[in-house]
Amino acid sequence: MPKPVQQQIGNVALVVENYDDAIAFYTQKLQFTLLExxxxxxxxxxxxxxxxxxxxxxxxxxxxxxxEQFHAVGNQTGGRVFLFLQTNDFWRDxxxxxxxxxxxLEEPRIEEYGTVVVFEDLYGTKWDxxxxxxxxx
Length: 137
Known about the structure:
- The protein is α+β, with helices and mostly antiparallel strands.
- The protein is built from three helices and nine strands; from the N terminus they run βαβββαβαββββ.
- Strands 5, 6, 7, 8 and 9 form a five-stranded mixed β-sheet that branches.
- The termini are far apart.
């Protein structure tokens, strides 16, 4: 009998200008954990960061190495929100991020599905900080 299909997204690649600057932002401003930083040679590194107590999907920080890639930094989705950071305590994380100097593009708002606010990372990539309502989460 064949094994049932079981898959998950392990990493989402995020093109950044500089590994070290990106690591500092995600670990210091957003309190992410640096899971791995392995030198692959030739200026390439395998850098994974993840929110605290994450479910297993990580960010793979990929330093731009071509003109095309540098143009994508901060705009990988054409100006739309790219990533959604879900939390179990919106106000705790919002206040901590704000005190750490994270740039928010709006005031927090209550939507039918939960509490949300858009913020930017150090390169202008748009994120949602989001706490889903119990009924939708």
